[in-house]
Task: inverse folding
């Protein structure tokens, strides 16, 4: 689904460029991000293959790519490598786009094995290492003059009393690398949290004891006050000279859950205050490739402070399309050696909505009023595009809502009903 001028611009772009003989594309998984990549490339005359490790996910039903089922990059990396090597003859020269951190780690780990057959859309190895390590990223940012939250690293068995002085409470506990908490059964051991808030030294000690078998190091950062709509991003594609081919800025309007959740309503809008910091950071990292750089505004000193970088496409990357910025096409051209036209353009205000997540968030807030988002419907006042639904690709939404979302809602209602009576 799209409203107003957004759909018109996307359709005009799709029709404007097609041609034979171009290297194919492989998309690793077809959640919001992968589905968006397939739609970005529609009408470009490319063969697009989506490799899905999840049988029921909505992206499996898109008409914009071939869908094949394969092993998961996180649980079965060696089997996925074998799968790709076997497909190397048929898909030789294909551009591989990762869609999650585990995909990027997989491609970097097996870079030497895969590069004879494929083009990998990931940053250079040394740059990736400096970026995926959150503490290394903080140090690079500080040297480049980019504001960051107060940060410390604690190790297993370390006395924690210094955290109050170096970082303070409340603080945020994170993994050094996000992939660490998702390996094996670690995700259940950390309570399904990608980060969490700690309000006291006693709570920190309890949490660290709980996480000892998950990781020997943890990142501690000060908690920047303010709601989710103070989180902003700059997403772009960066060339070999660490200069952006194209970029746009955006703001999270609704995040579920509000503290460390996923942005389910994100709005593209001009945020010039984070552009210079991002350019400095990219130069310091010698960055190249796709990047989403996230900041949060700190009202205490009126600065946007760096939170993290995603070294790949992310859920809302399609927001650029509303401003004529197709980051996937820029990445494809760059990786395949085609001329890349500059996509630095004025940013139009448009919203990307994860409709399934937003629906569950709204329904959950009916039971837990403290989770309600103030002025939600007012926030949804701009032209919109959706993570799953699209007027020219309707099957992902139809199949997913009929076979997954609504049955889950019914089961949830029945479970609550049985619990009350």
Result:
């Amino acid at each position: 689904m799209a409203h107003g001028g957004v759909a018109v611009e996307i359709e005009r772009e799709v029709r404007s460029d097609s041609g034979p003989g171009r290297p194919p594309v492989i998309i690793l998984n077809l959640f919001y991000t992968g589905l968006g990549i397939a739609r970005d490339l529609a009408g470009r005359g490319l063969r697009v293959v989506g490799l899905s490790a999840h049988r029921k996910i909505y992206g499996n039903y898109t008409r914009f790519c071939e869908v094949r089922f394969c092993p998961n990059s996180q649980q079965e990396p060696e089997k996925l490598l074998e799968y790709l090597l076997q497909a190397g003859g048929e898909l030789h020269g294909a551009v591989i786009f990762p869609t999650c951190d585990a995909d990027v780690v997989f491609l970097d780990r097996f870079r030497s094995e895969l590069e004879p057959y494929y083009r990998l859309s990931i940053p250079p190895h040394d740059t990736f290492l400096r970026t995926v390590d959150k503490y290394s990223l903080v140090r690079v940012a500080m040297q480049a003059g980019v504001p960051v939250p107060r940060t410390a690293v604690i190790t297993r068995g370390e006395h924690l009393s210094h955290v109050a002085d170096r970082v303070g409470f409340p603080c945020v506990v994170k993994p050094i690398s996000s992939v660490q908490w998702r390996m094996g059964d670690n995700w259940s051991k950390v309570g399904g949290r990608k980060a969490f808030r700690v309000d006291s030294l006693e709570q920190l000690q309890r949490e660290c004891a709980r996480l000892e078998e998950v990781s020997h190091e943890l990142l501690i950062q000060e908690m920047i006050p303010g709601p989710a709509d103070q989180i902003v991003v700059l997403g772009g594609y960066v060339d070999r000279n660490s200069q952006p081919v194209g970029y746009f800025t955006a703001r999270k309007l609704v995040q579920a859950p509000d503290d460390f959740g996923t942005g389910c309503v994100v709005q593209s809008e001009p945020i010039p205050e984070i552009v210079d910091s991002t350019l400095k950071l990219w130069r310091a990292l010698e960055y190249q490739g796709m990047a989403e750089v996230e900041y949060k505004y700190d009202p205490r000193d009126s600065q946007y402070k760096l939170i993290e970088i995603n070294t790949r496409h992310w859920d809302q990357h399609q927001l650029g399309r509303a401003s004529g910025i197709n980051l996937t096409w820029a990445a494809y051209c760059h990786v395949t050696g085609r001329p890349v036209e500059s996509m630095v353009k004025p940013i139009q205000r448009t919203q990307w909505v994860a409709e399934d997540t937003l629906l569950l968030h709204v329904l959950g807030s009916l039971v837990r009023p403290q989770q309600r988002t103030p002025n939600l419907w007012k926030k949804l006042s701009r032209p919109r595009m959706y993570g799953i639904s699209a007027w020219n690709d309707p099957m992902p939404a139809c199949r997913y809502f009929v076979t997954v979302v609504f049955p889950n809602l019914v089961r949830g209602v029945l479970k609550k009903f049985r619990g009350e009576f």
